[in-house]
Amino acid sequence: MNWEQIPLGPLQTNCYILSNENKSCLIVDPGEEGKKLVNHLQQRKLKPQAIILTHAHFDHIGAVDHLREHYKLPVYIHEKEANWLMDPVLNGSQFFMLGNSIKAKPAEHVFVKEDKMTIGDFTFEVFETPGHSPGSVSFYFEKEGVVVAGDALFQGSIGRTDLPGGNHNQLISSIHNKLLVLPEETLVLPGHGPTTTVVEEMDSNPFLNGF
């Protein structure tokens, strides 16, 4: 599996394009700039199979409908945030976007529990990693040694927990019990900033080590 990190929008939210040798791909967290993403996919001759969302904050969902309608894609999100897609208050855009509220149509599928999933050519595990938001999830591709962590874990930092539904203790628990237990060499693809690894965060993340 190949992956590309594409920072989008004013918050430079990382969208990930996960693809294989057949040119099939999954789109993770298309936060904004839908036309840019479509052009990129067309240039690469990639064939999207689904949009999967780590959570439903506005900066992760802004281009969902543009891509969904262009490619006729299903969207997946955790059930605890399914209604956030349609609600600018819940997804935060009403407060942070200065009147430019973001809404998306309802998701075609919801994650209701941790599970192993296959979408098209891709098989991965869904981990519930709440704390940044109630329905935050991470996607673990065991064979490839990659976890897409959304806004749970960053290089040298963790997701903010002062937004509605955030819980600091819950986030720390999610990171320790779901992410840091993965093989140390696992590559962590975060929602913002550069990539990292499990071992790097175990050794040096000040939010996880009491520094």
Give a short overview.
By secondary structure, the protein is of the alpha/beta class. It has a single domain (2-209), classed as 4-Layer Sandwich (Metallo-beta-lactamase, Chain A), CATH 3.60.15.
Write the SSE topology:
Elements: E1 2-8, E2 13-19, E3 24-28, H1 34-44, E4 47-52, H2 64-71, E5 75-78, H3 88-91, H4 93-96, E6 109-111, E7 115-119, E8 122-128, E9 137-141, E10 146-150, E11 153-154, E12 157-158, H5 168-179, E13 187-190, E14 196-197, H6 198-204, H7 206-209
Helix pairs in contact: 1-2
Organism: Cytobacillus spartinae
Pfam families: Lactamase_B
Cofactor: Zn(2+)
Features:
211 residues; alpha/beta; Metallo-beta-lactamase, Chain A; six-stranded mixed β-sheet; globular; metal-binding; Metallo-B-lactamas; zinc; RibonucZ/Hydroxyglut_hydro
Beta-strand percent range: 25-35%
What is the strand arrangement across the widest sheet? 1-2-3-4-5-6
Helix proportion: 10-25%
Number of domains: 1
**Could you say which structural class the secondary elements and strand pairing correspond to?**
alpha/beta
Major pleated sheet: 6 strands, mixed
Q: What name goes with the CATH superfamily? A: Ribonuclease Z/Hydroxyacylglutathione hydrolase-like
The global form is globular
Order of helices and strands: EEEHEHEHHEEEEEEEHEEHH
Count of helix runs: 7
Report the radius of gyration as a whole number of Å.
16 Å
CATH classification, class level: Alpha Beta
Low-confidence segments, given as residue ranges, are none
- The residue-averaged pLDDT reads 96
CATH topology: Metallo-beta-lactamase, Chain A
Domain Metallo-beta-lactamase: 12-192
InterPro entries: MBL_Glyoxalase_II, Metallo-B-lactamas, RibonucZ/Hydroxyglut_hydro
Pfam family, one: Lactamase_B
Protein name: MBL fold metallo-hydrolase
